[in-house]
Design a protein that fits this description.
alpha+beta, Arc Repressor Mutant, subunit A, 4 domains, 40% helix
Length: 320
């Protein structure tokens, strides 16, 4: 099955490949790209409709079918030219590669480091600017290495995972599906047999990980992994926060259902959460930079937590 993203990647690779290998045959191309000849013909027909703005015959890529099932392209010189990155693009690419290089035992880390050396050499000034950017990834090297190894070998793992919202450690068997880095943290995504669903685990909260002999076998109908790191359910509780200007980062960091400008640089956001313990901690962390609009019970929980914290602080000061 060809998804839109995989097809786009294939098309972007197919054009330069044909430019470098003129008169390739349909069977050879289908075998090289791992698709059927029927799918290949559909891709070539789509390429025939691509080109520069204007979309006149002189702007579009031309696809030629020759004798013996051969294929060749013309009028694709703009794609043949080397890619020129802007300073901002090169800077973002260097920082992203450095982040990947910091992940212990990441898949393809040798290729990442080789690519980083090449990009830094070519980027020049952008690489110098990136050198002033500190890249730090929060991860447990042993945990990430074990997870990456199980992922490569398609093996199930047994986790002891700390859940801060309930202040408990749970044991669960997981079929690893992906390791990813977001906002400087490393996560393991996979099919959790305890939950019967895809779950995302922060590697710095994995207390113990053991690779099992059983193969990793996520259900065939589980579908693709979610694009977002966290995907709230419509049944989760709806929470409304009023964010002061210095707390607007919350709207970028957490998935919000709505954002409304509230004047003076303030922002009102709504988001969903299955449990509100972490929201109480977030509100405590933000202090006067955020106000809980609803639900009422969350506002009450934040007020009580703040009162208890103040009482404990006052008690400590009086004892000193």
């Amino acid at each position: 099955m060809s998804t839109s993203s995989s097809r786009l990647e294939r098309l972007l690779a197919l054009v330069p490949y044909l430019l470098a290998h003129p008169a390739s045959t349909l069977p050879d191309l289908a075998r090289t790209f791992g698709i059927s000849i029927s799918q290949l013909r559909q891709d070539l027909n789509l390429i025939f409709m691509c080109g520069l703005p204007g979309h006149t015959p002189g702007d579009l890529i031309e696809v030629w079918f020759g004798p013996d099932n051969t294929v060749s392209l013309s009028n694709a010189d703009t794609i043949r030219r080397p890619l020129r990155l802007t300073t901002d693009e090169a800077l973002a690419l260097v920082v992203a590669l450095r982040t990947l290089a910091e992940v212990p035992a990441a898949e393809g880390d040798d290729a990442v480091r080789r690519a980083l050396i090449k990009i830094e050499t070519a980027a020049g000034q952008a690489a110098e600017q990136a050198g002033r950017v500190a890249v730090a990834v929060e991860a447990e090297p042993g945990v990430v290495a074990a997870a990456a190894g199980a992922l490569r070998r398609s093996r199930r793992v047994r986790l002891a995972y700390y859940v801060p919202g309930r202040d408990e450690t749970t044991d669960r068997d997981v079929d690893p599906m992906r390791l990813l880095v977001t906002a400087g943290r490393t996560y393991l995504q996979g099919w959790c047999h305890r939950a019967g669903a895809i779950r995302t685990f922060r590697t710095d909260r994995i207390v113990r990980i053991v690779e099992l002999t059983e193969p990793a076998t996520p259900p065939p109908d589980v579908g693709p992994l979610p694009d977002a790191l966290f995907t709230p359910s419509g049944a989760d509780r709806l929470v409304t926060l009023l964010l002061e200007p210095r707390a607007r980062w919350v709207a970028d960091y957490y998935p919000c259902e709505s954002r409304t400008e509230s004047g003076g640089g303030r922002l009102t956001v709504t988001l969903r959460s299955r449990e509100t313990g972490w929201l109480v901690r977030l509100a405590m962390r933000l202090g006067q930079q955020a106000t809980v609009i609803g639900p009422v019970e969350l506002a009450v929980a934040v007020r009580e937590q703040a009162r208890d914290a103040l009482a404990a602080y006052s008690s400590t000061c009086s004892c000193g």
